[in-house]
């Protein structure tokens, strides 16, 4: 079966970039990305590609090339479903904030709504692709909804699992050149045919040996497993960073030494203020929840520790700022460089900066933030979401600056929360001259030049570096 029309439900950080790359690489396929969020769709359609709702290096060029040719963004979900032979579900699957599994399980209401809408609209057979990250065995629930809530005129649905492994900040490079593409489907001949249809889409630019096909459950569970392993590496090196600080070891030297062991490998061994992003925490919590549902308490506890360690790392970064500043930051200006959860993205979901700011605001600090890509409304929304204090109090305590030097002016301390490259090239002497003395820098990402900063006169603290 040759696919001519693809629909993707959900125009977010995954749906947008993923479909833009499919459209660019497959000019013979029409790709329509739909969303119920009209503002988001309008931004995807903005003539000025610098205004796209997702910031990713290289995304603007891909969109500029394919949009209007075979890439379309629309709010007309029904029409796009009706026209497509293959429908990707790329909607959000956040942690549940209510009821059973609150704070742990994935909230599947958006996925279910999608499935019901597909069932209602479809007039012919469809391949439905799970692009969202979902708990293992969700495909059977989706199949059940599709088969039983439709208009009942013998329409056949095939469900595939095709989890997305892109990393924000490098999404376009990851999509153009993926380590692997994973496709899970039914072992029946119809299932295999559906798998092949999706393999054929990716084969337009991905070497076939990197396209892995499995059964649906392996594919669903592989995504949760991959994120759990990645996050675990960060928590492992962060756990060692605290021990390094106590013992005079340097976590970067330790990371280099262990990373040269080919069984361990050098990547993802950077100690930091803690991981953020919409996925790691939510997916591990989901994994813990699934393990618990099967009565696997040891498995659940094992993975939960990754989150506990990450929360600890964020908290101890804030605690260290307070204790170093003579046990009080009340009324003191603390400048934040960075709010995004990592560089080269405007995504702030679960960013460590939010939690560090929250802790410091509790201590009555005056926080001033500069981030090259995150807008003020986003930062305030992130803080308001925590419900720690009123919206007015958040706006009183946190100031958002459009200029980094202004953010640092008069500050007692600077905290580096995101590893944006531009921070490395600042005129640090100029910044120093405009700060209170002693001037402290807490480098939560380990990106600044320690010797240079010390020479200027800064008191410099880096995660994982003992005295
Ligand atoms: P997102 O929140 O940026 O985008 C989801 C979009 O779906 C929103 O714009 C929302 O309005 C839309 N939506 C929800 N229900 C809808 C409906 N019924 N009809 C039409 N549109 C609807 O989320 P993001 O980050 O793109 O994530 C999507 C999925 O991909 C999640 O399951 C996530 O775990 C997974 N994922 C995310 C990665 C990331 O780096 N952000 C990486 C790999 C997977």
UniProtKB/TrEMBL annotation:
Residues 335-450 form the UDP-glucose/GDP-mannose dehydrogenase C-terminal domain. NAD(+) binds at residues 10-15, 35, 40, 91-95, 132-133, 168, 279-282, 349. It holds the Pfam family UDPG_MGDP_dh_N. Its EC number is 1.1.1.22. Substrate binds at residues 164-168, 223-227, 263, 270-276, 341-342, 445. It is an enzyme of class 1 (oxidoreductase). Belongs to the UDP-glucose/GDP-mannose dehydrogenase family. Catalyzes the conversion of UDP-glucose into UDP-glucuronate, one of the precursors of teichuronic acid. This is UDP-glucose 6-dehydrogenase.
């Amino acid at each position: 079966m040759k696919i001519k029309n693809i629909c993707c439900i959900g125009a977010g950080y995954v749906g947008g970039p993923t479909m833009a790359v499919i459209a660019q690489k497959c000019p013979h396929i029409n790709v329509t990305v739909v969303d119920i969020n009209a503002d988001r769709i309008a931004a995807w359609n903005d003539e000025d590609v610098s205004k796209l709702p997702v910031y990713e290096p290289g995304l603007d060029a891909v969109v500029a090339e394919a949009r209007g040719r075979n890439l379309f963004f629309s709010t007309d979900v029904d029409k796009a479903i009706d026209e497509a032979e293959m429908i990707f579900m790329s909607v959000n699957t956040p942690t549940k904030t209510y009821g059973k599994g609150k704070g742990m399980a994935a909230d599947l209401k958006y996925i279910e709504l999608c499935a019901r809408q597909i069932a209602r609209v479809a007039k012919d057979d469809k391949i439905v692709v799970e692009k969202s990250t979902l708990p293992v065995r969700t495909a059977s629930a989706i199949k059940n909804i599709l088969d039983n809530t439709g208009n009942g005129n013998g329409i056949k649905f095939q469900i595939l699992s095709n989890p997305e492994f892109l990393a924000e900040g490098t999404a376009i490079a990851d999509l153009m050149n993926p380590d692997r593409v994973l496709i899970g489907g039914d072992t029946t001949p119809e299932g295999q045919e559906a798998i092949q249809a999706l393999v054929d889409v990716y084969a337009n630019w991905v070497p076939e040996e990197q396209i892995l096909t499995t059964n649906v459950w392996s594919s669903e569970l592989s995504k949760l497993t991959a994120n759990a392993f990645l996050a675990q590496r960060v928590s492992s090196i962060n756990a060692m960073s605290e021990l390094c600080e106590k013992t005079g070891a340097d976590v970067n030297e330790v990371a280099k030494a262990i990373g040269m062991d080919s069984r361990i490998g050098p990547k993802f061994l950077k100690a930091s203020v803690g991981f953020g992003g919409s996925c790691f925490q939510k997916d591990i919590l989901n994994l813990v929840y699934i393990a618990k549902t099967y009565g696997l308490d040891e498995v659940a506890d094992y993975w939960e520790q990754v989150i506990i360690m990450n929360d600890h790392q964020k908290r101890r970064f804030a605690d260290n700022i307070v204790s170093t500043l003579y046990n009080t930051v009340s009324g003191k200006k603390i400048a934040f460089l960075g709010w995004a959860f990592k560089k080269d993205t405007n995504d702030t979901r679960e960013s460590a900066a939010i939690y560090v700011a929250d802790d410091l605001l509790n201590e009555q600090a005056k926080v001033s933030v500069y981030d090259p890509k995150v807008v003020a409304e986003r930062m305030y929304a992130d803080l308001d979401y925590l419900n720690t204090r009123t919206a007015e109090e958040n706006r009183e305590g946190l100031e958002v600056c459009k200029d980094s030097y202004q953010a640092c002016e008069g500050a007692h301390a600077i905290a580096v929360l995101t590893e944006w490259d531009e921070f490395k090239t600042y005129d640090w002497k100029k910044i120093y001259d405009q700060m209170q003395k002693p001037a402290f820098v807490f480098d939560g990402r380990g990106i600044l030049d320690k010797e240079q900063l010390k020479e200027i006169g800064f008191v410099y603290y880096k995660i994982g570096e003992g005295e």
